Amino acid sequence: MVHDLLKDTTVTYTCSMHPEITSETPGNCPKCGMGLVLQGSTDVALPGAIPHASDKHAGHTAASFLRKFWIGLLLSIPVVLYSELPEVLLGVRMPTFPGMQYLGPLLGSIIFFYGGWIFLIGAVNEIRAKLPGMMTLISLAIVSAYTYSMYVFAIGATHALFWELATLITIMLLGHYLEMRSIDTAQHALRELAALLPDTAEIMVGQVTRGVTLAELNVNDLVIVKPGGKIPADGVVIEGESQVNESMMTGESKPVEKKVNSTVVAGTINGDGRLVVAITRIGEGTFLAGVMRLVAGAQTSKSRLQVLADKTAFYLTGIAIVTALSTLFIWLSLDKGTAFAMERFIAVLVVACPHALGLAVPLVVAISTSIASRNGLFIKDRLALEAARTIDIVLFDKTGTLTEGAYGVNAIIPLTNTTTDADKQATVAAREQENILRLAASLDFASEHPVSRAIAGEAMKRGIELFPVTHFVRVPGKGVRGIVRGMRVEIGGESLVGSKMIDGLVQDVHREIALLAGKGQTIVYVMADDNPIGVIALADIIRPEAKEAIVALKRLGIKPVMVTGDAEEVAEWVAQDVGIAEYFFRVSPHDKVEKIKAYQEKGLRVAMVGDGVNDAAALMQANVGIAIGAGTNVAIESAGIVLAKNDPRDVVKIIRLARLTYRKMVQNLFWAAGYNVIAIPLAAGALYAWGIVLSPAISAIFMSVSTIIVAANALLLRRNGQVL
């Protein structure tokens, strides 16, 4: 029998995006090019792999358990009705008919082989993996009940256990269905990611277009993405402008502007513009595939609590078997009858099934990972999320993390506002600021210098219409000049306007400019016909979310620290603006690692937040490495947690989620383990003298209720996750 089970245990690989595609060998999906995974698991399949013991339902679905449950329930009803139970409990005897003595053995056998076969397969997988667990216990119970009952029937004796067998298997099927449905619900986010890709793509070949499957796409193919269409693979826009919905990747609800040279990722949804995209990555190399691997890996990776739960379940299985055998021999020695002793034996095996214990942590892991992915937080290492709850200090890199990593206009100072009317002064200043920006942007629009691009970009952001420019000239090392509306306009630094003219500015303006320059900001003067009309200060723009993130961290009792390779005045300005008291400047990548080590030597647990490029070593040294912006391979390799958005507030979300997740795991483990302290003695008959005895079916109900409680508690995490 065992040989037949082993022979029938097959390994099937399927595509996450196209489940109708199956194979008995690993490979790639012929439709989308994604790697096939082990059916019933989110793990990446390996050649020759067999379902792991923890993947006890490999090859089965929630629907199959539900179907088996209903059939088992229908067959169990006549078995129960024609057992001794109705007469004992209700004094009712069912009508007799010829051959009724065969009803229990016949229907019991059908239920055993049809409904119980899943558990037998699972037990074989657990034994092959040398990790006996809940499926082993269930199988021992139903095999013992069936074998004993058939023996009793064969010798013509009474007190067979067919009704206990039928109800036990039926209730176990219902419990497993509820468990699988809970897990399926928890993994819904992963399936949503898998469904993002379109089935086909439209590529350009010369002047002709044709539709192809995703598996036929190649790097450098030109793909047309129509309005409302899904982007089939990662690439770069070479023609067209549009807004792309990247919410499933980043959690950002606002569409992102895309134009020539903008990067796009597979699975995102195009807006109302037509785009032509040059493909850069396909199949397993796309960002979406990487995200799916992160989510799947996180759902199956082990945390410390998961390891503890696995060990506890393993030992509990051994304890249950020893206790069940001891119970059998004790009741036999007390002459309570073989049927009674067998009932106690089976009840102990059933009630001690570490079902709830096995579900306590994995279900929380699946749900927390789904919550994280919906918020654009991708967990590469479960240990990183577990460690995030204990963080004492968060080190932020400045550029690209707390700031946007690009020049932006920080201030515009008019130099010609002479009005003394306080009510009119603000209005006049705003109008003059707009005029200064319009003149400067009109001239800078033709320049590729980062400062010029920032000024022109600010004008476009404000919707300011630019003036035509003639006689445009770049002045190397100084700035630009040209004719705008008949005026000779010049834009540049001190070297362009001359120190005497700067010294001639009024004292208040001079002081304000000096203050901005002292913060490390770039000062640009705007001249019209040799007269200074305004000053534009530019700096690396601080992210508006940074201050909110720092405040939230402090509320959680976590100390924020900033490390940057920038100058002292710039570091001081950013730190003061966002509310960070401790900061380090002119810090090299190596120095960042040393700073982290210094904190760790003091017994502090450190999280490092960086862009994943220059900060790779620091991300790996930290107790928790958090890469902000998930677009780089370095980020994925060096960090345990990857944030899809460049939003420092997501660091706070990670810590909150880590604390919620840990709390749910501890609650579930406490219930799952503590339940057995009471349940096993009851099933063994410890209170028999007081008339309290648990039948195998009632034991199965208790075990299933325990599992449902654990699942329901885990699902509460989803409600808590809405307040991240």
UniProtKB/TrEMBL annotation:
Record's GO cellular component terms: endomembrane system; plasma membrane
Major localization listed first in the record, in broad terms: membrane
Domain P-type ATPase A residue range list: 196-295
InterPro entries, per the entry: ATPase_P-typ_cyto_dom_N, ATPase_P-typ_P_site, ATPase_P-typ_TM_dom_sf, ATPase_P-typ_transduc_dom_A_sf, ATPase_P-type_domA, HAD-like_sf, HAD_sf, HMBD
Record-linked Pfam families: E1-E2_ATPase, HMBD, Hydrolase
TM annotation in the entry: 65-82, 102-124, 136-154, 160-178, 312-334, 346-372, 669-691, 697-717
Subcellular location: Cell membrane; Endomembrane system
One Gene Ontology term of the molecular function aspect: copper ion binding
Keyword Isomerase: no
This protein's UniProt keywords: ATP-binding, Cell membrane, Membrane, Metal-binding, Nucleotide-binding, Translocase, Transmembrane, Transmembrane helix
GO-annotated biological processes: copper ion homeostasis
Domain named Heavy metal binding: residues: 13-37
Keyword Chaperone annotated: no
Record-given protein name: Copper-translocating P-type ATPase
Source organism of the structure: Candidatus Wolfebacteria bacterium GW2011_GWC2_39_22
